UniProtKB/TrEMBL annotation:
It comes from the Bacteria. Coiled coil: none annotated. InterPro entries: AAA+_ATPase (IPR003593), ABC_transporter-like_ATP-bd (IPR003439), ABC_transporter-like_CS (IPR017871), P-loop_NTPase (IPR027417). Transmembrane segments: none annotated. Pfam families: ABC_tran (PF00005). Residues 4-239 form the ABC transporter domain. This is ABC transporter ATP-binding protein. PANTHER family: HEMIN IMPORT ATP-BINDING PROTEIN HMUV. It comes from Halomonas elongata (strain ATCC 33173 / DSM 2581 / NBRC 15536 / NCIMB 2198 / 1H9). Keywords: ATP-binding, Nucleotide-binding, Translocase, Transport.
Amino acid sequence: MASLEAHGLIVDVPGRASGRPLDLRMAPGERWGVLGPNGAGKTTLLHTLAGLRAPRDGEVHLEGRALSRWRRREVARRLGVVFQERHDEFPASVLETALIGRHPYLSPWQREGETDIARAREALRRLELEHLEDRLVSSLSGGERQRVSLATVLTQAPCWWLVDEPTNHLDLHHQVATMALLEQQARQGCGVVMCLHDLNLAARWCSHLLLLYPDGEACWGAARDMLVPEALERLYDQALTTVEVDGAPVFVPVR
């Protein structure tokens, strides 16, 4: 597995100045958290890294080659995306949806085999969804749908996880379980990039952080160097109190 890199990358956020180009290298095994207020461009950046949106300038490189030079099927085998919201207009069961993760490996009109189905069922088990495999996704709660999205990418088995708000709609137990799953994927050699709103999840689970400011400015580095109260207060325009729990900082907004 190889790195995911931004070379002079400026994401295209309508109505905003270009800001600072991103020149960074994200390596396998790292867990990058992207932090910033609403409208800072977190989702736009994630979609640009996935090749789903063209940048205003610069390039994304995967395994040392510009993403634009890859075939889409090859990209789909290497990059897995969990979107912020699901749209389930078509009737499909939980198992059928998880099996979408195997499509990059199948030829046109090829059906999933026993190995694909076994992989999907194992992913559903990991996300505590095995009892729902025959349910229509459209009938599930928001948190259950989010876990189906995660199970689909787990079935896909990409080199890189690009996850927009992984804990969206999840209860506390499943928030922790999801962050632990992403940490495990990184330990197994995958790279993880996740947009987060929860500073405390970022402090506890991320190895690196990228801070995106509303004016297009950005800074990045190891999480321990980025979790500076003054920088975070400027990022969110919010005063914070900091305490330490189990060796990790916990940030509490000042009322």
